[in-house]
Specification:
alpha/beta; Cobalt-precorrin-4 Transmethylase, domain 1; Methyltransferase, Cobalt-precorrin-4 Transmethylase, Domain 2; Helix Hairpins; five-stranded mixed beta sheet; 52% helix
């Protein structure tokens, strides 16, 4: 009498019954019953006539998610495995390719001491590659349509070609399209592959924005997305920076360290701020790239010195954002942004406690290198989080007037400097109450002054005069003209 393991899992191949492996076909001749995950597979109708075929299709109509269906299938397979004859369970394609139930069954079977045998099958990948006439090497990515559909942006480098499996409905295709178009051009050429592994295979070439319009989409549809240029991805950019720092790279880049790069970091940050103030999108794009270069350079230098690498930088900020947003990534409920900020401070304190760090004051995290106005506004903002604030804006206005009076009454340069600083500090507080960024407001005022004064210079030049020859009244008149032109 032939002995079977408690659980036998076999792959039914991509579709055409002729693609069943000889090992699987021989087993099918030796058994009397088989449980299939779904009968929606072309090979099921061609199974040996003597087989009693049971399916789990009924579970799909009961559960509200695929995960719930798969859990129920696993539980039922384990229950059937307790019988003397065990259970033979069949899945589409290969048991370990785009098949969530197989790994779950194996884990549970090991815990219960059940024996498992897996008979391989041809996956959907091989016939899809044949239909596309491509080689997956060296760098084809394979992803799941539902994972992409549930994301806000693609979570893979776009400079690599991509194969998306299980694009089983037009709705899923629409969701996938929207995610991909966050990175890929809307008219990026792509190919849909339908019914791969069957005689009805069809390859459809179209633009990305059109994929959800295809009338042939079903559970046997895959999407192939050709790569974008290397310049579009983060990893090749890291390679460029590492190359510049390598022995065969650039002498200037090799000479740099954290200290020598500090001026460039500040310069690029301020140039980005200026582009933001000017609302110049093209300049912002360029300056963000320059600032990113500084970030990657510092990470590369730290990696060379054995301190940390880009992996640690990304891991740290990723975990920090997730941990400090339990109202987004967890089940914490918050009423408004002020409650978010108060909870943020609690979480930071808890992180320091877990890391055995010395307790810090509320204001210790405000960088002293910040511009004075930005530093003042952040100091006030943090103090306000714990209630150290005026109850009404009238108190702020009174404080401004009080500080101005004290400045007028001050004697001596030292006292005047102190009182002038207090006026600025109180004005920054007023800006905070009015939801104005003090640093940006002053930068914009500086820019307006530049533009108006440049107008005065231009008009004087047109008149063939020297600026120093104008009276104050004449300058004021031209100043008013410049304001009117704005």
């Amino acid at each position: 009498m032939m002995h079977f393991p408690s659980i036998t899992i076999l792959g039914l191949g991509p579709g055409d019954p002729r693609l069943l492996t000889r090992q699987v076909w021989e087993l099918l001749g030796d058994i009397e019953e088989i449980y299939v995950r779904t009968q929606r597979h072309p090979a099921v109708g061609a199974l040996p006539a003597h087989l009693r075929v049971f399916s789990f299709d009924y579970l799909y109509n009961r559960a509200d998610s695929f995960e719930a269906v798969y859990r129920q299938i696993v539980d039922e397979v384990l229950r059937l495995a307790q019988r003397p004859q065990g259970v033979v369970y069949a899945v589409p394609g290969h048991p370990f390719v785009a098949e969530a139930t197989t790994p779950a069954i194996l884990r549970a079977a090991r815990e219960e001491g059940l024996s498992v045998r897996v008979l391989e099958g041809i996956s959907f990948i091989e016939p899809v590659l044949s239909a596309l006439e491509i080689d997956p090497l060296p760098n084809l990515l394979i992803s799941d349509a539902l994972e992409i559909a549930a994301s806000h942006v693609p979570q893979f480098p776009p400079h690599l070609p991509l194969l998306i499996a299980q694009l089983y409905s037009r709705q899923v295709a629409a969701d996938v399209k929207l995610t991909l178009m966050e990175v890929y051009p809307h008219d990026h050429p792509v190919r849909l592959v339908h019914q791969a592994g069957t005689a009805a295979v069809k390859v459809e070439q179209l633009s990305l924005y059109e994929i959800d319009r295809s009338p042939w989409i079903d559970w046997m549809t895959s999407l192939y997305v050709p790569s974008l240029p290397r310049e579009t991805a983060f990893e090749p950019f890291q390679e460029v920076v590492a190359h510049l720092r390598s022995p065969e790279g650039c002498p200037w880049d090799r000479e740099q360290n954290h200290q020598t790069l500090k001026p460039f970091l500040l310069e690029e940050a301020y140039e980005l701020v200026e582009a933001i103030d000017q609302e110049n999108a093209l300049a912002m794009q360029e300056e963000l790239g320059d600032l990113l270069l500084q970030v990657v350079l510092h990470a590369q230098i730290a990696s060379e010195e054995g301190d940390f690498g880009m992996k640690e930088v990304l891991t740290g900020i990723h975990r920090k954002l997730v941990n400090r947003h339990p109202h987004v990534f967890g089940d914490l409920a918050v009423r408004d942004s002020s409650e978010v900020l108060r909870n943020w401070e609690k979480l930071k304190a808890e992180e320091r406690r877990k890391n055995s760090e010395e307790p810090k004051g509320l204001l210790d995290g405000v960088p002293r290198a910040l511009p004075a106005l930005s530093q003042a506004q952040e100091l006030q903002r943090r103090a306000a989080r714990v209630g150290f604030d005026w109850p009404q804006i009238e108190g702020v206005l009174q404080k401004v007037a009080e500080e101005l009076h004290e400045l007028l009454a001050a004697k001596g340069a030292k006292d005047q400097s102190t009182e002038f600083g207090d006026i600025l500090f109180s004005l920054v507080n007023l800006a905070r109450w009015l939801k104005i960024d003090a640093e940006s407001a002053l930068r914009q005022a500086n820019q307006r002054f530049r533009q108006r004064f440049a107008y005065i210079e231009q008009r004087v030049q047109e008149q063939g005069r020297n600026l120093a020859d104008l009276t104050l009244a004449e300058m004021d008149a031209l100043w008013d003209e410049a304001k009117q032109l704005e």
